[in-house]
Amino acid sequence: MGDPETSPSLSRRAVDAARLGIFGGSFDPPHAGHLYLAAEARASFELDHVLFVPAARPPHKLERRLASGKDRCAMLEILLDGRSEFSIWNGELARSGPSYALDTVHELMRARTGKGGELFLLIGADNLEGFARWHGVEELVCLTQPVVCVRSGSCFEPESLALLSDSARAKLRAGRLEVTPFEASSSKLRRALRAGRDPGPGLPSKLLEYLRSRDIY
């Protein structure tokens, strides 16, 4: 089994997948919770492949300095550890300006021309509050099936979703995925690393070694 592919060109598995999951994010750093959500979404929605897409400049994080794209891709490769059901695509890192999910979906559709199939957009619960204000959100929901990862028993429809059309809200409900709470978060891990504390089990040992060797945070 080879390493996950990291390229502006899609891996063959991503191109050929009839049901392709798209998992975008800062991944600063990536952690076991990201891997858990991708695996849960793949199993629950019968996805053939999940594509990890590190963002260059997330629209909601324009003021925060991120680790380099090269380091974030390298960390993702360590995290995925050669699992063939996942690959990494750095298409957003190759673009200038904010990283809009809709632009990514259009680019993936062009790369998969003639393949048909369905695209599934993984969305974390922390992004749900502002989702209705995403760039081109109605078209985005039309072109993909959102998979909304929420903690069991948590609020699924914040008031802001009332800004969406009835059909968009219906697709969000259809994509609800309840998951077991996972305590690791990138922000908590960064704070622990900067303070010299043990970041806990969210970072595999090889990933932690990489972070410390590069003194990223």
Index terms:
seven-stranded parallel beta sheet, 217 residues, Rossmann fold, 7 strands, alpha/beta, 8 helices
Task: Walk me through this protein's architecture.
The chain is of the alpha/beta class. The protein has a single domain (6-185), classed as HUPs (Rossmann fold). Helix content is 35%, strand content 17%. It has eight helices and seven strands. It has a seven-stranded parallel beta sheet with strand order 1-4-3-2-5-6-7. Helix 3 links the parallel strand 3 and strand 4 (86-89).
Please mark out the parts with pLDDT under 50 across 5 or more consecutive residues, or reply none.
1-6
Secondary-structure-based class equals alpha/beta
What is the fold-level CATH name, i.e. the topology?
Rossmann fold
Strand line-up across the major sheet: 1-4-3-2-5-6-7
- Give the ordered list of helices and strands: EHEHEHEHEHEHEHH
Structurally, how many domains make up the residues? 1
Name the CATH homologous superfamily.
HUPs
Number of strands: 7
Our estimate of the beta-strand percent is 15-25%
| Chain-averaged pLDDT | 90
CATH class: Alpha Beta
Shape: globular
- What is the name of the CATH architecture? 3-Layer(aba) Sandwich
* Sheet having the most strands: 7 strands, parallel
Number of helices: 8
Percent range of helical residues = 25-40%
